[in-house]
Amino acid sequence: MSVKIENINLGSFPLMLAPMEDVSDPPFRAICKENGADIMYTEFISSEGLIREAEKSTMKLDIYDEERPIGIQIFGGNIESMKLATAICEQANPDIIDINYGCPVKKVAYKGAGAGILQDIPKMVKMTKEIVKSTALPVTVKTRLGWDENSKYIVEVAERLQDVGIKAISIHGRTRKQMYKGEADWTLIGEVKNNPRMHIPVFGNGDINSGEKALEMKKKYGIDGVMIGRAAIGYPWIFNEIKSYLKNKEIISKPTIEDRVRVCKRHLKHSIAWKGERLGIFEIRKHYTNYFRGIPHFKDHRIKLVSSENPSEIIEILESIKDKFSEFSFS
Q1: One of 32, 89, 103, 264 is an active-site residue; which one?
Q2: Assuming Cys at both sites, which of 1, 51, 114, 240 could form a disulfide with 103, CB separation 3.0 to 4.6 Å?
Q3: E strands of the chain, at which residues?
Q4: 264 is catalytic
Q5: CB contact at 8 A, 238 and 232
Q6: For residue 138, what is the DSSP state?
Q7: What is the tens place of the pLDDT at every residue in 163-184?
C-alpha cells in the first residue's frame, strides 16, 4: 500500500532526505534524488529572515521540478511571523510546508524556536493550527521526543498536532538535551505509530545508516518510512542501498572510487549551475572530505581541491584521485 501525504504518493516505504543546515541545498538534493531519495526538504529557513528578505533565507527557497515532491521547512518562535513566512514560501510553489520543531542548536532553541518550543506544547499546537489554517498546502512537522528525559510527551503531542491538521510527522528519536549524542530511541516513535488514534504517516529519524537498520525499524515499529540525515552526507548512495535491501535483502557493492569521482563531478556541476562559478566552487568544498572518507593519506588531495578556484582544474584533480586510488577498496 502506498504512503501518502495528503494526495502526494510516496511509494510503499519512502526514504526521505532530512533537512540539514548548510548541507541539503539544491545541488546536494539533486545528487540524492538521482540516487534514490523519494522526498526531500530544504535547509531550514528562518521565518524572520524571510520576512526581512534576508538573502541567505530567500536563496533557500530555490526549488526545482526534478526534486519533487519537496517541502520547504521553516522555523521561528513567533506565530504571526511563521504565518507570514508560510505565505512567502507558498510563492515558491513547494509541495509541502514543513515546520521545524526539532533543531537543538542553542541559538535557535533558546529563542523558543526549533526544539525550544517543546518546552511550551500549547504554543506548539497553537502555532501549528494557525499555519495549517493559513495555507492550502499540506503541512508536516519534524520534531523530537521531547526537551529532555523528563518531558518526552511525543505520543500526546503527535495526537494534538494531527488533530489541528498536520498531514504527516517525522520524529527524531532523541531529546533536545541529547542533541545528536547517544543512540536514538525508537520505542516512542513506535508508540506514536501504533497509537490507534493516529492515521497520518509517521516517519522515523535517527541513526539509519544501512538497509539492515531501516528494515529492522520497519519491522519492529511499523513506521511508514525513514528520514536519513547524516548518513547521506558524502554518501548519497545510501538511499538505493536501503531500497535494494528492503526489496530483496541484497547488500549491493559499495561505490568505487570511480563512482565517487563521477558523482562528485556532478555535484560540482549542479553547484556551479545554482550559485555561479565562484560561489558554486566554494559551496561544494565542505563535501570533498565526506565523498572520499576512508582513503588513506588523502589530506594533500583535499587541500588541492579546496584551494582551486577553477572548475577545469578541479576536474583534473578529481581525475588524478581516481587514477591514483583506482585499486582502493571501500568496505
Answers
A1: 103
A2: 114
A3: 4-5, 8-9, 15-17, 39-41, 45-46, 70-75, 96-101, 139-144, 168-172, 202-205, 225-228
A4: no
A5: yes
A6: -
A7: 999 999 999 999 999 999 999 9
Q: Does domain 257-324 have CATH number 1.10.1200?
A: yes
Q: Tell me the three cell numbers of residue 172.
A: 527524531
Strand partners, 170: 142, 203
3-state secondary structure 12-29: CCCEEECCCCCCCCHHHH
118 is written with which cell numbers? 517543546
Cα(108)–Cα(224) distance, integer angstroms:
29
Reported as half-sphere exposure (CB side, CA atoms, 13 A), residue 154 has a value of 33
- Specify whether the CB–CB gap between 75 and 46 falls below 8 A: yes
- Residue 302, SS3? helix
CA 146/CA 101 separation, integer angstroms: 10
- Listed in order, the ranges of the chain carrying CATH 3.20.20.70 are 4-248
- pLDDT greater than 80 at residue 331: no
Q: Does an H or E element contain 194, and which?
A: none
Where does the chain hold its CATH 1.10.1200 domain(s)?
A: 257-324
The C-alpha atoms of residue 269 and residue 284 are separated, in whole angstroms, by 10
- Is the pTM higher than 0.85? The answer reads yes
β-strands 8-9, 4-5: how paired? antiparallel
The CATH superfamily assigned to 4-248 is Aldolase class I (3.20.20.70)
